[in-house]
Amino acid sequence: MSVVTSRLTKEQEKKLCTLLGQAKLSLLFKATVHGYNNNSFHQKCDRQGPTVTVAYNKSGYVFGAYISKDYAQTGQNVTDDRAFLFSFCDHKPKAKPLHVVSNNPQYAFTDSSMGPNYDSLVFLYNNTATVQSNPGTYNFDPIQMHGNDIQLIECEVYRVEDYGGLMETPWRNIQWTSEKRKVLMETITNWRPDVGSVKQARMLLVGPVGAGKSSFFNSISSVFRGHVTSQANTGSAGTSLTTQFRTYSIKAGQKGKTLPIILCDSMGLEEGLNSGMDMDDFTSILRGQMQDRYQFNSSMPLQTESVYFRKSVELKDKIHTVAYVIDASKVKLLPDKMIEKFAALRRKANQMSVPQLVLLTKVDEACPLVAVDLKNVYRCNYINRMMREVSDLLGVCLSSVVPVKNYSQELELDNDTDVLLLSAVNQMLRVTEGYFDDIYENDSLDRIKPLF
């Protein structure tokens, strides 16, 4: 699955958000990737709620339009008193953005099968990289709007979501003190499963490419080592950087004892056939049959004759908990095929009685209110909405959705980041205890002799 990246720079986004307010922009359509094509535009952008179209030309102008209503190809003129056109120029960094409202909000935009049509500006005109410019319903000077340059080098459409501000009180209680960090570290270090044959809980990390699986391991390892480390390969390439099945133990300090957890890193999930980790490999991992450093092959799952196939499996080799890793800023953009893959994985894990939860990563990237202060994570309305949406999409209870921020660009540890990461691991251990409780109960039942 290729990664579609925004052309909008941080500075350009800041300028645009002076007009939009405190908003989250999620890229839906990119003409250089999806084509300067009306059908592609509608396939990606219909019924997405408020959107902003952003066009770029060689003259350095960034211009477009915001609407608060859906595209739905009704063939009607749509009333929208919140719609506006905008423009700013990279060559004029200190100038305020141009903001133009409609002379008649009843004709804010035409909801047709064409490209984004605001009467005075029509994008993807005749399925080409051009804009039809005809000031009328929106009255503007073409020089100010686009410098009389209607040839585009890019056209993007973003969903616009209101962050919703902060709640007065957090909806989950969490202590952010250094003392709490110490308690969590001790709790994790001293945890022991109730089954004598198992010394470490094996936790499998599963998720789309770039969601932060490897970064999560690196972050947990960093907390316990006392400095930021990067043992597992990370990045945002279009295909998975994790090509091997890896099982990582973590030490408490450079020469400290090994923690009672093993984090298992898997190949990223991808939409297409013969790409990413498949169901057979997932099943082999859950059963404990796949050994460390097995090289994934998307076209052929692990074979029984492979040297990496574990023929004699013990309880300690099996997966005791699955953690689905999902990028908080990509929740709304999860393709249907990816959701179907998650559903299939959930069914298989349920069949094998393996408990599951969700790690919602990159919460600081998803919401600037959290980026400013991580302690806002349980006060942020937007993050709350994303957690509830993930809960619905994957069919897990809300208590099984845990937000985290991985270390990605930092050089030093941060107490708040550590507390959130350690809280996630602690919750994973609590879930894992349920797995061993079931094993213990089933084992006890098997030992009961019939009376007759």
TrEMBL record:
GO BP annotations, alphabetical order: immune response
SMART domains registered for this protein in UniProt: TLDc (SM00584)
Q: Which CDD domains match?
A: Ras_like_GTPase
Looking at the record's lineage, which domain of life comes first? Eukaryota
Family matches, as Gene3D superfamilies: P-loop containing nucleotide triphosphate hydrolases (3.40.50.300)
Q: What range(s) does the TLDc domain occupy?
A: 2-161
PANTHER family for the chain: INTERFERON-INDUCED PROTEIN 44, INTERFERON-INDUCED PROTEIN 44-LIKE ISOFORM X1-RELATED
Q: Which family does it belong to?
A: Belongs to the IFI44 family.
Name of the protein in question: Interferon-induced protein 44-like
Which species?
Answer: Chanos chanos (Milkfish)
**What is this organism's lineage?**
Eukaryota, Metazoa, Chordata, Craniata, Vertebrata
